[in-house]
Model the fold of this input.
Amino acid sequence: MRRVLRVVLLPLVGLLLGLVAAEWGVRTFAPQLRVTEHLEWESHPAVGFRLAPLRQVAGNDGGSINELGLRGPAVPPRRDGERRLLVLGDSFTFGAGVATEAAFPAQLGALLSSDSGATVVNGGTPSYGTERQSRWLNAFGDRVDPTHLVLAVFVGNDFTDNLELEGPVVFEGKLMERQLVGASTEELRGRLWLSQFHLWRLVSSRRTPAPARPEPTAKESKEAGQEAYEQWKRAEEQNFARRQGERIAIYAPPAREAPHIKIAYDAMEVCLARVKAWCDERGVHLAVAILPDVVQVEDNLQAQVAAFAGIPPGAAEWDRPQSAIRNWCATQSVPCVDLLPPFRKAGRAGGDDSLYLVADSHFNARGHLLAAEVLARELSEFWARPPG
Done:
């Protein structure tokens, strides 16, 4: 009996201790943090899922979630003569990774508003593509009652998100992978339990471990601390370039595109038309803002992504999504602001000049400020249009 215990239990104990040590190591040296992991979600029949309303969120995603499931204060009934701008979008519009007041809708409101009666509502919801945004607009837009609407399209994944009509799955307040649509309660609970472990997050994302961001101690020199930080940053950026390489099919020229990419471009036009129809029916002024992906902006990252994905030089049309949206806007006489040119001018070198979070495709505070400044300048005439 003792021999059986030694043969069976000792390896199991060793395995368990090894997993504990590995989890500690990943949490310490390569923490797998998610920008929006503090958010709480709920299922909704009209949109599939939305942010759980009337919540207070911690962290950089923090602040209040109002009664409509939007980031920011409550939305009161619109007063007579009040200009109200709804900025509809995804996690970029929401402001993932920055404070509520740093997100570009809030800053845009401060720049556009020349009178105290003007308001801006942040209508950004993480994981929403344009299709789901149009569904949200049909379900909740009248409660916002905007006079102006800016549809913010993030080209990095909004096109392909429009193809995912089912999922993600909401389970116990968490948003889980689309692949789990139809999974049993036991499987969902098991995945939710596993997702608490950083080792599981590392393995499931297929990332190469990178050292944790070091914080210099009092004994370290400024130079040594800076060098350690740069090493961490380079490792994280290399991992990020590999991940970006998995989602750049949207930049393929039409002659080389995958079948689902053609569908994605067609679906985007359908979604844009739905938003325009909603606005036309209510006399709401519509404009479109095109938010660029970091791989379009930063030259060094673009070269890394192309190398990891095996894309020859010149084989990608890096501004193809922007061109498609601009063309649609031109045919529909919809004002369009393309943020790619000013973003490339300001942040093409990356590094300290980056407009994006480290190893993340979301805008940092500097990127949000630039987006707000460009939109305020380009949309001044649009904003001056009186309520319909």
